[in-house]
Write a structure and sequence with these properties.
The protein contains 16 helices and no strands. α9 packs across α16. The mean pLDDT is 86. With 273 residues, it is mostly helical. The radius of gyration is 23 Å and the shape is globular. The chain has one domain: Orthogonal Bundle (MetI-like fold), CATH 1.10.3720.
């Protein structure tokens, strides 16, 4: 009986936390169909009293949303693909190859996860200036190609793969390039999915670094663009909510597609075989 009561109480707490978490998003979506005077009214209602879609229709005219959205999508997908590939190949080398200095190298990778990002931003910004990458997508993509978290996660995941499969492939004459791309990569799809979701989310929501290195408005990403929109059209909250609601859609799609692999990848990476 006590166990049943505890289970019900736990579910009640989780439902309450879920409502508290989701409610602001639901309010924002409904507000994107409201007029500005209704959004700013003292008496607030969750559902629109006067349902309109003008905020979505006129959004791109007032704010170059499609341009910013496309910029963010291209940069985010490029970073995600590169991080997934580099994390997987580094994790494969660190988990399945024995060489001198392997533990030291892995320790260096872990150390990069412990250094606060604010500590490295000034030297990284100076390097970007010296390389002449300012106001270029190279300043966003190249420094983000390697992820300490991704390498650590993939090392833990790939270490659980049986060595016998790799040895059998080598006996059959397969080279290391073939083994990685045709055997390890497909078998590590759960870990890859978890890394892809995390990296896509981080790159999509990144604000400070694009704000620092991208100066041309037409090249700017969506996170910075929404802030620019808020500053320039401070009273047009309806269009701002509409743009913000659409900007969340890619993250939801990625998570829904890779949800099962994401959960399985996190679970398998947490335990080393």
């Amino acid at each position: 009986m006590k166990r049943k009561i505890s289970k019900v109480a736990l579910y009640a707490i989780l439902i309450l936390l879920g409502i508290v978490t989701v409610y602001p998003f639901v309010w924002m979506v409904f507000s994107s169909f409201k007029q500005n005077r209704e959004i700013m009214a003292l008496e607030q209602h969750l559902l629109p009293q006067s349902f309109i879609v003008d905020n979505y229709i006129n959004m791109n005219n007032r704010f170059n949303f499609l341009r910013f959205f496309g910029n963010s999508l291209v940069v985010t997908l490029t970073i995600t693909v590169l991080v997934v590939y580099t994390s997987t190949i580094c994790g494969f080398v660190l988990s399945k190859y024995k060489f001198k200095g392997r533990n030291l190298l892995f320790g260096f990778v872990l150390a990069t996860m412990m250094i606060p990002w604010c500590v490295t931003i000034i030297p990284k910004y100076t390097m970007i200036q010296e390389f002449g990458w300012m106001d270029s997508y190279k300043a966003l993509i190249i420094p983000a190609m390697f992820s300490g978290f991704g390498i650590f996660n993939m090392k833990q995941h790939i270490s659980t793969l049986p060595d016998e499969i790799l040895e059998a492939a080598r006996i059959d004459g397969a080279n290391e390039f073939y083994i990685f791309h045709r055997i390890v990569f497909p078998m590590a799809k759960n870990g890859i999915s978890s890394i892809a979701i995390f990296q896509f989310l981080w790159a999509w929501e990144d604000y400070l670094w694009p704000y620092l290195v991208i100066n041309t408005k037409e090249k700017q990403l969506l996170a910075v663009g929404l802030k620019m929109f808020n500053g320039q059209y401070s009273t047009d909250y309806g269009a701002l909510f509409a743009a913000t609601a659409i900007s969340i859609i890619p993250v939801l799609i990625i998570y829904l597609i890779f949800q099962k692999q994401f959960i399985a990848g996190i679970a398998s990476s947490a335990v080393k075989g």
